[in-house]
């Protein structure tokens, strides 16, 4: 009995020990598996960290380079005034990528307004306004004013039209459409949104004048079927349209009769006397004078014109106003002055007179002085020097950016030997 009891006790003890041993073995196994797992994780983590730091080593200099590039590409805009909501206007400039339009854009942007330039780039260039692209107050729209435009604005400076004889004579029908249909579209827009419209008219409405100097009440002497008629008559009818919209629809209009203007951003192939003479003098070519050279012209510098346009737009003068410089010179005097300023040895060459070329042109600016308090202030030589500097740079730019095709290397077909 006792021995049986002892055996039962012995087997119970060994079962418990077995269980204990089994439990301990299981624990040891779990501990070792966990240890391995932790070990592997830390190895994995370590290697991940090493890879990350390697990547970082390579990427950081690249990031640095991108930051430098971004810095160098960040557009630096000319300084712009801050205008409160009340004073800031939404201004549309048609033809704003052209010579005058781009200077007007600069002035209005710097004054703190919101400017939308609309241009079909017939004679204008993106380069003239590229320094504003991306600015929050600026927008550039590629659009032909012969098509209607729907936009919300407070003021419209309507400048879209080719302005120099070679440009407006290149496609006379298009010149007529731009000045007639284009002006109707802009007046329609002004009526719809209640905007004030300023028309960039021209001294050409006086034609080959019989009175000298020309004041605003002179009706002009224009050949309606001559080579200049598409422009002269186009502008005359554009003025008529302005006053019809004013009388019939109550649209607020301003009409600037602009006389010859010059300055940087004139076209290289503008074909007008100042740019022709400067380019000829800079390139050592003869300065070409049409006729005897005794015909007179008066030229204003572009910043004077821009100040006049803004003064007129913001005035209460709705009748036409001449904007020009009354300082009159003969064409021959211009040729000689430009030769001297450029320091050129070019000769002066006389060619036959151009058809319908006005003999005299000089603005009477009493009205602008009296009603706008405006008159030109930039002396001729100062303006000419700025224009000469611009054309010199343009010639350099052209010379450095010409496409010179590289000679192609001779192609040798596989498997064939070239005979020499
Ligand atoms: N520069 C002067 O001496 C002078 C003299 C008298 C009048 N004006 C008038 O001033 C305005 C500007 O002259 P500018 O010298 O700056 O000439 P420009 O040729 O440099 O500028 C005219 C601009 O109008 C754009 N344009 C032409 N047709 C267009 C169309 N259908 N739709 C949209 N855009 C069009 C051209 O691409 C160009 O950017 C013109 O209306 C011109 O008649 C200029």
TrEMBL record:
Domain named NAD(P)-binding: residues: 92-386
Reaction catalyzed: UDP-alpha-D-glucuronate + H(+) = UDP-alpha-D-xylose + CO2
Membrane topology: Single-pass type II membrane protein
InterPro entries: NAD(P)-bd_dom, NAD(P)-bd_dom_sf, UXS-like, UXS1_N
Principal location listed in the UniProt entry: Golgi
Cofactor(s) required for function per UniProt: NAD(+)
Any single Pfam family the record assigns to this protein: GDP_Man_Dehyd
Recorded GO CC terms: catalytic complex; Golgi cisterna membrane; Golgi membrane
SUPFAM superfamilies the UniProt entry points to: NAD(P)-binding Rossmann-fold domains (SSF51735)
Similarity field: Belongs to the NAD(P)-dependent epimerase/dehydratase family. UDP-glucuronic acid decarboxylase subfamily.
Protein name per Swiss-Prot or TrEMBL: UDP-glucuronic acid decarboxylase 1
Organism name: Cavia porcellus
Gene behind this protein: UXS1
């Amino acid at each position: 009995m006792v021995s049986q009891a002892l055996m039962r006790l012995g087997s119970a003890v060994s079962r418990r020990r077995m269980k204990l041993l089994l439990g301990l073995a299981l624990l040891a196994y779990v501990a070792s598996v966990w240890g391995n797992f932790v070990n592997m994780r830390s190895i994995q983590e370590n290697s991940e960290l090493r890879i990350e730091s390697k990547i970082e080593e390579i990427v950081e200099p690249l990031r640095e380079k991108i930051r430098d590039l971004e810095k160098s590409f960040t557009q630096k805009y000319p300084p712009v005034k801050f205008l409160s909501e009340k004073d800031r206007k939404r201004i549309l400039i048609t033809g704003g990528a052209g010579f005058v339009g781009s200077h007007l854009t600069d002035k209005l942007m710097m004054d703190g307004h919101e400017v939308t330039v609309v241009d079909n780039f017939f004679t204008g260039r993106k380069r003239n306004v590229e320094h504003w692209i991306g600015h929050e107050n600026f927008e550039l729209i590629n659009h032909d004013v012969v098509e209607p435009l729907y936009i919300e604005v407070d003021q419209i400076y309507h400048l879209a039209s080719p302005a120099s004889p070679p440009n407006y004579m290149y496609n006379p029908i298009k010149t007529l459409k731009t000045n007639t249909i284009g002006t109707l579209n802009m007046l329609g827009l002004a009526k719809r949104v209640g905007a004030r419209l300023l028309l960039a008219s021209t001294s050409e409405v006086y034609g080959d004048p019989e009175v000298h100097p020309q004041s605003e009440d002179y009706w002009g002497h224009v050949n309606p079927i001559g080579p200049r008629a598409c422009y002269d008559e186009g502008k005359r009818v554009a003025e008529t349209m302005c006053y019809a919209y004013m009388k019939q629809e109550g649209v607020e209009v301003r009409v600037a009769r602009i006389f010859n203007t010059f300055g940087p951003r004139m076209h290289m192939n503008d074909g007008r006397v100042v740019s022709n003479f400067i380019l000829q003098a800079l390139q050592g070519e003869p300065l070409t004078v049409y006729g005897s050279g005794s015909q007179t012209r008066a030229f204003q510098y572009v910043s004077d014109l821009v100040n006049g346009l803004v003064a007129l737009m913001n005035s209460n003068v709705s009748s036409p106003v001449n904007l020009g410089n009354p300082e009159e010179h003969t064409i021959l005097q211009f040729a000689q002055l430009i030769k001297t300023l450029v320091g050129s040895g070019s000769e002066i060459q006389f060619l036959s007179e151009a058809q319908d070329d006005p003999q005299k042109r000089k603005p009477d600016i009493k009205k602008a002085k009296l009603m706008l308090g405006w008159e030109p202030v930039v002396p001729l030589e100062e303006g000419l020097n700025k224009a000469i500097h611009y054309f010199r740079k343009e010639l350099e730019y052209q010379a450095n950016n010409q496409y010179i095709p590289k000679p192609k290397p001779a192609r040798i077909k596989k498997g064939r030997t070239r005979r020499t």
